[in-house]
Design brief:
Elements lengths: L6 H4 L7 E2 L3 H6 L3 E5 L2 E6 L3 H10 L1 E5 L4 E6 L3 H6 L14 E7 L5 E9 L15 E6 L4 H11 L5 E4 L3 E7 L3 H8 L11 E6 L2 E6 L8 E7 H12 L4 E3 L2 H10 L26 H6 L5 H10 L3 E8 L10 E3 L5 E11 L4 E9 L8 E6 L2 E8 L16
Parallel strand pairs: 1-3, 4-14
Antiparallel strand pairs: 2-3, 4-10, 5-8, 5-9, 6-7, 7-8, 10-13, 11-12, 12-13, 15-18, 15-20, 16-17, 16-19, 17-18, 19-20
Helix pairs in contact: 3-8
Length: 394
């Protein structure tokens, strides 16, 4: 574990291309590997559509160890985090997790993330008695920039730790709880966006009931040295198969979940991105986070553009980079994600359009490589979320 990172240590830290702790395991299981976010990662095993549908029907195991796992603690850590995030950090109870955003001074999104307050029995090393500690997961493609931003914005008394000796596995799907409960009794008691420490064969795990597919599921932080054994044990359960990046992308698209660097960026505000829920009530009233004046102004009046879902006519997917055009062919918006949705049975997309065109049912014209495509604004998610709000297994 890299302890109490300084600005000097973070500079130039990102290496060219890394391998995941499970790299050899993926290859042994027939994965086709690609470079993503600075890592060699599995894009598929049996085929994207088959893996997508398996996850919707059963349970898929995703390796997301490229993500940045951080532990943050020290005197004044609550106020320090609230100076950088629009989340109600003070109101976050132990074992509770919250979706939040790193914001620039302009109000644009630097990254989206998960933040949990750690209970005293967490597996991430010692902290001072009485001081709260937090676990943060940031995107793999931005984690080095996030580390630099956090280190610059946090007082020197705050410890910023990159948990680089831990892997992160996501078990997703309606049967995920059945498989994981057999190995780790007690996880079924977790509700959506809650987390706790567990033991598996003497190995300390941190497990949250959350994910990036719209399905019920869990994210499991495990020591890198134990990750192969855990992956093997999970895939020995009849409900579980390994799933690659390709299906992860199509699943999150159907679930209406944005991907940083595509649907979110520094030019996009939380309100334009339809992420107003990430602005907690207390922070909306008190402000005090980067870009608060602009963001809270938009929260009241609305943003000029808005992220929407689109159902695309025909069978041809419309991809990121396609444009939204008006009746005269002028560009008025942009597609940020798109593809064929196996569970929907037709192409879908996300796009930013003028706010006056954001109502579901609005006809939209797209243009891709000079060819027109008709689409209709649709409510997101495209398939219902199936999160378990209270800890039950069925």
């Amino acid at each position: 574990m890299a302890d109490h990172l300084t600005e000097e240590e973070i500079e130039g830290e990102a290496p060219p291309v890394l391998t995941l702790p499970l790299d050899e395991w993926h290859r042994e299981h027939g994965a086709r590997m690609v470079e993503f976010a600075g890592y060699h990662m599995p894009i598929q095993y049996d085929g994207i559509m088959a893996e997508h549908l398996w996850t919707r029907e059963s349970a898929g195991l995703f390796d997301v160890s490229h993500m940045g796992q951080l532990r943050i603690d020290g005197p004044g850590v609550v106020d320090a985090l609230e100076s950088l995030l629009p989340a109600d950090v003070a109101g976050l109870g132990a074992g509770r997790q919250r979706y939040s955003l790193l914001l620039a001074d302009s109000g644009g999104i630097l990254d989206d993330l998960m933040l949990a307050r750690l209970p005293t029995d967490h597996p991430f090393g010692e902290v001072e008695d009485g001081e709260p500690a937090f676990y943060m997961v940031v995107n793999g493609a931005t984690k080095w920039d996030d580390l630099a931003h956090l280190r610059e914005g946090l007082d020197d008394a705050i410890n910023l730790n990159l948990l680089d000796e831990r892997a992160l596995l996501a078990l997703q799907g309606p049967k995920a709880v059945d498989a994981l409960e057999r190995l780790v009794p007690g996880v079924a008691a977790l509700g959506f966006m809650t987390a706790a420490a567990f033991d598996w064969r003497g190995t300390a795990l941190w497990i949250s009931r959350s994910g990036y597919t719209g399905e019920d599921g869990f994210e499991v932080s495990v020591a890198a040295d134990d990750s192969v054994a855990l992956a093997q044990a999970l895939c020995a359960e009849p409900e579980v198969k390994p799933i690659g990046l390709g299906a992860r992308d199509s699943l999150r698209l159907e679930a209406g979940l944005p991907l940083y660097g595509h649907d979110l960026d520094e030019e996009t505000t939380p309100v334009a991105a339809d992420l107003g829920f990430a602005l907690s009530k207390r922070r909306r009233e008190g402000g005090g986070f980067p870009g608060a004046e602009r963001v809270l102004g938009e929260y009241v009046t609305g943003a000029a553009i808005k992220r929407v879902g689109l159902i695309v006519e025909g069978r041809q997917p419309v991809r990121e980079g396609a444009t939204v055009v008006n009746a005269h062919g002028a560009t008025i918006g942009r597609v940020t994600s798109g593809g064929f949705a196996p569970s929907v049975g037709q192409p879908i997309a996300m796009a930013f359009v003028p706010a006056e065109l954001a109502a579901p049912g609005t006809a939209i014209m797209l243009q891709q490589r000079g060819k027109p495509h008709a689409a209709t604004v649709a409510a997101m998610p495209f398939v219902p979320h199936r999160y378990i709000r209270k800890g039950v297994s069925k």
